[in-house]
Fold this protein.
Amino acid sequence: MRIITGSARGRRLKTINSRRVRPTSDRVKETWFNIIGERVRGAAVLDLFAGTGNLGVEALSRGALFVEFVDNHRQSVNVIRENLKLTGFEAEVFCEDVRDYLSRFKSYQTETNPTFDLIFADPPYNQDQVKRLVLSIHHKNILKSGGWLMIEHSPQERVHTEQTRFCVFREKSFGDTQLSFLHQKDPLAYI
C-alpha cells in the first residue's frame, strides 16, 4: 500500500495484518481518485471505517484541506496515526463506532454541523451497514451541497437511496468490490 500521487507520492503506508481490515488496493484507490479528480484539492474530507487511513491520507497528499478519520478499532487508529506521521500530515482521528460518531450531529441543522465536501466510507462487507449509513448521512445533513458520498462495498449490497436526497451517479466494479458514487439530488426534486 502506497501513496499514489501528491506531496507524499510513493510513500509506503503501514497496514494491518488482520482479517478484520480490508485495505483498499492501489488499483481501486487510483480509480476512486481518477473519478474524484481535482475536487479533492481544498476539500473537507470524512473517512469513515477508515481502517489504515489509506484513502484519507491519499486525499491529504492530493491537497485536501483536512480529513477526519473514524474507525472503532484501536489497532486501526494507531496505524492511521503512524501513517499520518510517516507522511507528515496532521488530522483528527476518532476511535469510535461510525454510528456513535454520526449521532453527535444534530439532524437537519446545517448551521451547527460541520459539513464535508467528500465522504469516503468502506464499511464491512455484507453486514447491512450501507443502507443505514446512507440514511444516517442524509438525516445528519453533513455533506455540503455539491458534495460526494463514496462507498466501497460488496456488489451483493445495494445502495438504497429511497427517502434520501442522494442518487447514485456512478458505479465501478472490481471482482468482489464495488465503488458507488452518490451526490445530492436537486433540492427541488426532493420536495
